[in-house]
Specification:
The complex is a heterodimer of chains A (about 325) and B (about 240). Chain A is mainly β and about 325 residues long. Chain A is built from 3 helices and 18 strands. Chain A has one domain. In chain A, β1 and β2 form a beta hairpin. Chain A starts with 8 loop residues before the first strand and ends in a 19-residue tail after the last helix. Chain B has a single domain, classed as 3-Layer(aba) Sandwich (Rossmann fold). Helix content of chain B is about 30%, strand content about 30%. Chain B is built from 8 helices and 12 strands. A 6-stranded mixed beta sheet of chain B has the order 6-9-10-3-11-12, sandwiched between helices. Chain B has a 4-stranded antiparallel beta sheet with strand order 2-1-4-5. Chain B starts with a strand and ends in a 9-residue tail after the last helix. The C terminus of chain B is likely disordered. The chains are: A mainly beta (about 325), B alpha/beta (about 240). At the A-B interface, α2 and α3 of A face α2, β7 and α3 of B.
């Protein structure tokens, strides 16, 4: 974790503690962007009081990092974020939202809009880490213009009491989105909604959702793929149940309005196979080690960053 | 090295093995022959300690230690390694990650007479060909630095060229290091390559014949079938 850069944007509770812009990048508190850049008003539902505005105008060689943390009891956060990637620019953003201590009973209602202009590319990694007692609602809307590319990973391995996520993607012609979601719930009620609209010709999207429910947790995932034009979409939802008290529901929906579009989905919810566990145990792993190994694989791709751990927000401060 | 004493095993309430005894000394290769469903793989899994293979009587000793009731991973740590006939897929984790996790020794793939090196960065056992699967099993086993290896139908699904190359790797990496081997098979080709010191025939969950002349045994089996071994005309030599 030594290589972690300080966050470009740091908000603790309701206070912005740091804002480090870089060459070719305009970063402002959302409230100032709303005031100074009138065009941004079209992208905020209302005048924002918290959150960040990032406008990437030139290519940057390293990830921009944002961190919104709760450190005091009973804080309510309402960040409203806007990210704009200019035409032809490639950018990487790491976004972390978390609570820093147990029993703070915080509330985090985050709304983010991301605009990828023509031929731009964004790799975005979005990490959440919460505690029991927190209530979290997070929504993110991606707007991909022509030939834009999006790689988005959302990962929450420590869930709050209540978590609601919403992810909507709107794809123009020849744009592509690769969206991965990984949730590991030990206790809590998680509701996830995602909708992907293939609005332009030859737009393509792959949505992968991986859910692990342990102890006393309930996960519901509602996924929609909508083809309004001749695009290709694939939805892949898989769940692993680790306890008798948990449940996973997956509700995939494919809506095709174009005869030249192809939409597919696969879904499965089950437990870890005893055969796989025995196989790994025969290689010397303990039963718990084998379960961790399988879960790590199951939540793959999201795991390779920082050796599978969510980088603690203190590393960015 | 390993001693199996009067072992009886049931699986899902069905008795499969009955009074099996076997002793494999350090550096010895024993072949366990027999038709399908004779109990060969059951013995392999029972030695490895799989929970659904319940030992109802008898003992398993490894280097003088009673391992009959040890969990799988403890047996692996003590030096037992099993090459699976049909290993399960583990999605999302590469073979190289597994090797890093389990390795007690490192090796250079270039030293192998056969190499499917591209499988290292593929998910474990996902879409592997027959040869890739066996190569993966062999790499895992070698990396564990075992003292006793069970090869369960290692020749199944292998063409003769790959079989020759893989058995050559077994020679170099296991046999030359005096590692004891139990070779479970019902085919003759692998016997030619590995030349076991002792061969046993299992029928209906019992070892009905043991010989140190595996060629004679294999000729009899080919000519008259496994049942001939039951008649006791082939004498036991190393029981």
């Amino acid at each position: 974790m030594k290589n972690v850069r300080k966050a470009n944007f740091l908000q603790v509770n309701n206070e912005i503690r740091r804002l480090l812009a870089e060459e070719g990048v305009i970063m402002l508190p959302s409230s100032q962007a709303y005031k100074k850049l009138k065009w941004t008003r079209d992208h905020f539902e209302q005048k924002p009081e918290e959150g960040y505005f990032i406008w990437v105008k030139k290519q940057i060689s390293h990830p921009l990092t944002t961190c919104i943390a709760i450190s005091s009891p009973k804080i309510s956060q309402n960040p409203r974020n806007l990210i704009v990637i200019e035409k032809g620019v490639k950018a990487e953003v790491h976004s972390i939202c978390n609570t820093m201590k147990k029993s703070l009973y915080g509330s985090h209602i985050g709304r983010t809009k991301v605009i990828l202009k023509e031929q731009s590319t964004l790799q975005m990694r979005h990490f959440h880490k919460w505690e029991r007692g927190d209530v979290v609602s997070s929504s993110i809307h991606f707007h991909l213009e022509k030939e834009a590319k999006l790689y988005h990973v959302y990962k929450c391995l420590v869930v709050p009491e209540e978590l609601k996520t919403e992810l909507n993607s709107f794809l123009d012609s020849s744009s592509s989105a690769n969206i991965e979601t990984a949730v590991l719930a030990k206790r809590g009620n998680i509701n996830m909604y995602d909708s992907t609209f293939l609005n332009g010709e030859e737009a393509s999207a792959t949505i992968r959702i991986r859910m692990v429910a342990d102890q006393d947790s309930k996960i519901t995932s509602h996924s929609k793929l909508i083809a309004n034009n001749a695009g290709i979409g694939h939805l892949d939802c898989m769940g692993l149940l680790l306890s008798e008290k948990s449940s996973i529901s997956t509700v995939p929906e494919l809506i095709n309005k174009n005869k030249n579009a192809t939409l597919t989905h696969e879904a499965s919810v089950g437990r870890i196979s005893q055969e796989a566990l025995n196989y790994l145990r025969s290689r010397g792993l303990t039963e718990d080690g084998a379960i961790d190994f399988i879960i790590t694989g199951f939540l793959r791709k999201t795991v390779f960053v920082y050796k599978g751990r969510v980088p603690p927000s203190k590393n960015y401060m | 090295m390993i001693k199996i004493e009067n072992l009886s095993v049931k699986v899902h309430e069905q008795n499969i093995l009955e009074g099996v005894s076997l002793e494999i000394k350090e550096g010895e290769i024993h072949a366990l022959l027999g038709p399908n469903a004779s109990g060969k793989s059951t013995l392999a899994y029972a030695i490895m300690g799989f929970p659904e293979y319940e030992v109802t009587s008898g003992k398993i000793w490894l280097e003088g230690k009673d391992i009959t009731n040890l969990p799988i991973e403890e047996r692996a740590k003590l030096g037992i390694a099993l090459a699976f006939q049909n290993p399960p897929s583990i999605k999302g984790v590469t073979l190289s990650t597994l090797l890093k996790t389990i390795s007690k020794q490192t090796f250079n793939l270039k030293d192998f007479p056969i190499s499917f090196s591209e499988i290292l960065e593929r998910e474990i056992n996902v879409g592997y060909s027959g040869g890739e699967r066996k190569f993966s099993e062999l790499l895992q086993i070698i990396s564990m630095k075992p003292s006793f290896v069970i090869l369960d139908e290692f020749d199944a699904g292998l063409d003769i060229i790959n079989l020759e190359k893989l058995t050559s790797a077994i020679q170099d990496r296991l046999i030359c290091n005096d590692i004891s081997i139990l070779l479970v098979t019902h085919r003759g080709n692998i016997l030619n390559f590995l030349e076991p010191d002792v061969a046993h025939v299992m029928l209906d969950g019992k070892i009905v014949c043991t010989m140190d002349d595996w060629r004679k045994m294999w000729r009899t089996i080919r000519r008259y079938g496994y049942e001939k071994c039951k008649e006791g005309k082939l004498s036991s030599s190393k029981q």
